[in-house]
Amino acid sequence: MSISVIAIDGPSASGKGTVAQRVASVLGFHYLDSGALYRLTALAAEKAGADWADEGAVAAVAEALDVVFAGEAVTLGGEDVSLAIRSEHIGVGASKVAALPAVRTALLQRQRDFAQAPGLVGDGRDMGEVIFPQAQLKVFLTASAEARAERRYKQLLGRGEVADLAAITADLAARDERDRQRPVAPLRQLPDARLLDTTAMGIEEAVATVLGWWQEQS
Ligand code: C5P
């Protein structure tokens, strides 16, 4: 029997991570935050002194990532980097290294290995297209650019970071553009994905919608 997979893709700061985590928790499924792997790769490359544009060097870093996910916490080589990978700087680096085909290949199997019984909710940009094309439910979760910038802004303030709404809006736009235009695994809504626009929707409603779709197809 194949493992149940729910693939949730969408742009930055759309809330897909929170929704995916909650859905996984309700269903008792595993959770894959694939963006974290690209963020970890960007951070590890920086620590190793590798340029984010150096495909060979960054792919080697991705291949060798010594990562442990333990609930909310992530360690890299034994060091807790849960907060470090969430900075805007590393987010930008993640979208740069994610555009390199050899880096995506290096992280492919590591992502597929998350699909364990009883099931998995994976969130990212290419969950439904590349990593889990067999997923029983595919969701494209988005929100307007303004709503997403506002959410990221509040998230950063909530963490006590200095945040500038205009800079965040510009960063998100540049990141989205890079994710949509890249030749490998570009961000796009698949024909077999259901669209969930959360611009005017709270988390609970978004979670309930995905759970409803899951029940429909099970
Ligand atoms: O989702 P998150 O903002 O953490 O992802 C950081 C970056 O990693 C994204 O901007 C995107 O470029 C890249 N990414 C990707 N494919 C995924 C997940 C994330 O290219 N499956």
TrEMBL record:
Positions of the Cytidylate kinase domain: 6-211
Pfam families xrefs: Cytidylate_kin
Major location (coarse): cytoplasm
Enzyme Commission designation: 2.7.4.25
Any one GO molecular-function label of the UniProt entry: ATP binding
Source domain of life: Bacteria
EC main group: transferase
Signal sequence extent: none
InterPro entries documented for this protein: Cytidylate_kin (IPR003136), Cytidylate_kinase_dom (IPR011994), P-loop_NTPase (IPR027417)
GO terms for biological process, alphabetical: nucleobase-containing small molecule interconversion; pyrimidine nucleotide metabolic process
SUPFAM superfamilies for this protein: P-loop containing nucleoside triphosphate hydrolases (SSF52540)
Catalytic activity: CMP + ATP = CDP + ADP; dCMP + ATP = dCDP + ADP
Residues that coordinate or bind ATP: G10, P11, S12, A13, S14, G15, K16, G17, T18
Record keywords, A-Z: ATP-binding, Cytoplasm, Kinase, Nucleotide-binding, Transferase
Protein's cellular compartments: Cytoplasm
Any GO CC annotation of this UniProt entry: cytosol
Cited NCBIfam families: cmk (TIGR00017)
Family assignment from sequence similarity: Belongs to the cytidylate kinase family. Type 1 subfamily.
Listed name of the protein: Cytidylate kinase
